[in-house]
């Protein structure tokens, strides 16, 4: 049986979350920052606990969607 490659059809913009957070694409986004953004409400300002990227990040709808996708993709086995 051939595995379907569904993730290619989603239309993910590579590096969009990294650019929005001000973190280089080659660096990993800290999991603690992802958890803070996912738990925050839209419109809140999150203070980055790590030394990478922007210090204060405003949570927008698009940022929240991208972080939820990143959190879910980290769980997928390769």
Describe the protein's architecture and organization:
The protein has 78 residues and is mainly α. The chain has one domain. It is 38% helix and 8% strand. It has a two-stranded antiparallel ribbon. Helix 2 packs across helix 3. It is elongated. The model has no long low-confidence stretch (mean pLDDT 88).
Number of domains: 1
- Give the terminus-to-terminus CA distance: 18 Å
SS class: mainly alpha
Low-confidence stretches: none
Describe the secondary-structure layout:
Blueprint lengths: L15 H6 L9 H9 L5 E3 L8 E3 L2 H15 L3
Helix pairs in contact: 2-3
Give a summary of the structure in a few sentences.
The protein contains three helices and two strands, in the order H-H-E-E-H. It is mainly α and 78 residues long. The longest helix is centred in the last third of the chain and has 15 residues.
Offer a few descriptive terms.
78 residues, mainly alpha, two-stranded antiparallel ribbon, 3 helices, 38% helix, elongated
């Amino acid at each position: 049986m051939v595995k379907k490659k569904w993730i290619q059809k989603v239309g993910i913009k590579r590096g969009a979350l990294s650019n929005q957070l001000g973190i280089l694409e080659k660096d990993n986004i800290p999991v603690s920052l992802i958890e803070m953004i996912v738990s925050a409400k839209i419109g809140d300002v999150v203070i980055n606990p790590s030394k990478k990227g922007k210090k204060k990040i405003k949570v927008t709808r698009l940022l929240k969607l991208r972080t939820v996708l990143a959190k879910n993709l980290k769980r997928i086995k390769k």
